[in-house]
């Protein structure tokens, strides 16, 4: 199967670097899939689950936060604030972050604080959804 070169970079590490058969990114309208020889473009990445298929056929999933993806000449670069595998997610910490964000949203805030609280809640919900340990209640 055709492949392309993929590099997924978060603010603290290179999450993935190598060949890829298929990449599925979370975007504002839903999901965006990239295959080999995709048209050149730049896409905004939202909080959500990133899925990539290695040349061996293995699917890798990650909880990612906002960023962007650049597709040029059969090479894809994804730059996001954070990228975590399901097994790396601390479910207790994510649940606490969700509760804090929901509590902040209940209080009167400035517009900027409101958007920051919304972003925190979205990150926490994504991390909980992606985590392998699904022993939490939303």
UniProtKB/TrEMBL annotation:
Name the gene that codes for it: atpC
- By its UniProt entry, which HAMAP family does this protein fall under? ATP_synth_epsil_bac (MF_00530)
Instruction: Spell out the NCBIfam families in the cross-references.
Output: ATP_synt_epsi (TIGR01216)
Function statement: Produces ATP from ADP in the presence of a proton gradient across the membrane.
- Name the source organism: Lachnoclostridium phocaeense
Q: Which family does it belong to?
A: Belongs to the ATPase epsilon chain family.
Limits of the ATP synthase F1 complex delta/epsilon subunit N-terminal domain = 5-83
InterPro entries under this entry?
A: ATP_F1_dsu/esu_C_sf, ATP_synth_F1_dsu/esu, ATP_synth_F1_dsu/esu_N, ATP_synth_F1_esu_C, ATPsynth_dsu/esu_N
One GO molecular function term of this record is: proton-transporting ATP synthase activity, rotational mechanism
Q: Where in the cell is it found?
A: Cell membrane
* Membrane topology designation: Peripheral membrane protein
Provide the protein name. Answer: ATP synthase epsilon chain
**UniProt KW keywords:** ATP synthesis, Cell membrane, CF(1), Hydrogen ion transport, Ion transport, Membrane, Transport
Which Gene Ontology cellular-component terms appear in the entry?
plasma membrane; proton-transporting ATP synthase complex
Domain named ATP synthase epsilon subunit C-terminal: residues? 87-132
User: Can the keyword Transport be found in this entry's annotation?
Assistant: yes
């Amino acid at each position: 199967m055709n492949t392309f070169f993929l590099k997924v970079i978060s603010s603290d590490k290179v999450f993935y670097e190598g060949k890829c058969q298929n990449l599925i990114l979370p975007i504002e309208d839903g999901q965006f899939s990239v295959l080999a020889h995709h048209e050149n473009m730049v896409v905004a990445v939202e909080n959500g689950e990133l899925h990539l298929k290695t040349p061996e056929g293995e699917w890798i999933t990650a909880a990612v936060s906002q960023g962007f993806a650049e597709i040029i000449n059969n090479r894809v670069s994804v730059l996001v604030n954070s990228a975590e595998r399901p097994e790396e997610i601390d479910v207790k910490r994510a649940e606490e972050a969700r509760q804090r964000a929901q509590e902040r949203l209940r209080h009167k805030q400035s517009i900027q604080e409101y958007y920051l609280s919304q972003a925190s809640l979205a990150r926490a919900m994504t991390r909980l959804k992606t985590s392998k340990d699904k022993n939490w209640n939303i």
